[in-house]
Amino acid sequence: MKSRIISGLVLLCVIVCTVIVYRLIFDELSTLFYVNVTVACVAETILLINIPILSNRQLLTFKNAASSIVLDIFAIVLFLWTSIYSLFVEEKSDYRILYIGLLVTIIIFIFLFGSVEMGGSFMQKEEKRQQQVSQEKRMFSNFLTIYYMEVCNILITVNAGVADEIKRILEMVLDKISTIPSEKLERNESVTTSIYEELNEIKALVENLRKEDTQETNTQIIHKLESFNNYVTTIKSTL
To answer: Interior CA angle at 231 toward 226 and 232, to 5°?
Structure first.
């Protein structure tokens, strides 16, 4: 609140000083005087308002920075056009060109500002989407790592030969799953759901193997893993 009051006072002082300077420059309060004072005050306001944005890291996004730069250039061009052309204005009929120049400048920079705003908004949305995809990728990767460790812990009490074979195939399948792009999984929720279901079924079979270590259960798990491996391979090639 205090900083806003100070900024407001600074802006007010700058505007007052500007009016005084132009009053000393112009002999009479003509239309040209009011045009120059108005343009100068608008330009100063834009430049002073943009200072906090360009100096604040939290506010300094690509969109805000680009928009601020466009506005700063607009303010400078507007001021220079009015000031320089005012030196050559001799009659009131010459004001028409001055006004045309101001309007053309405003139209061009409105178009540029709109383009920057739309482009910046698109880039912000894309950046957020990429961050979300990256976060989901990390979460999915962490899930696969934890899943593999849990299965390995279950297999500690199982016959070493059987456990090694299950680990080998499971590791191969999980590596394939981890290489599936997150964007593809995100667009196909049913596939993601089926992968989780298959993994849970395999984990349940492994837990049964610990309780009942038989050749039949072993064969069932290996068959399930190989079937799941083929399913993952198909997903990678068709999604």
So the answer is: 95
Residue 88 contacts by C-beta under 8 Å, 6 or more apart in sequence?
94
- How far is CA 61 from its chain centroid? 9
Matching residue, tokens 């349940």: 204
Copy the structure tokens of residue 146: 């934890």
Quote the Cα angle for 137-121-115, to 5°: 140
Position 15, amino acid: I
E strands of the chain, at which residues?
none
Residue 180 is classified by DSSP as: S
Helices (H), 56-94: 62-86
* Calpha distance 102→80 (Å, rounded): 11
| 105-151: pLDDT as tens digits | 899 988 888 888 787 777 777 777 777 777 878 888 888 888 889 88
Identity of the amino acid at 149: M
Residue 72 near residue 9 (C-beta atoms within 8 A): no
- Name the CA dihedral angle for 103, 104, 109, 114, rounded to a multiple of 10 degrees: 90
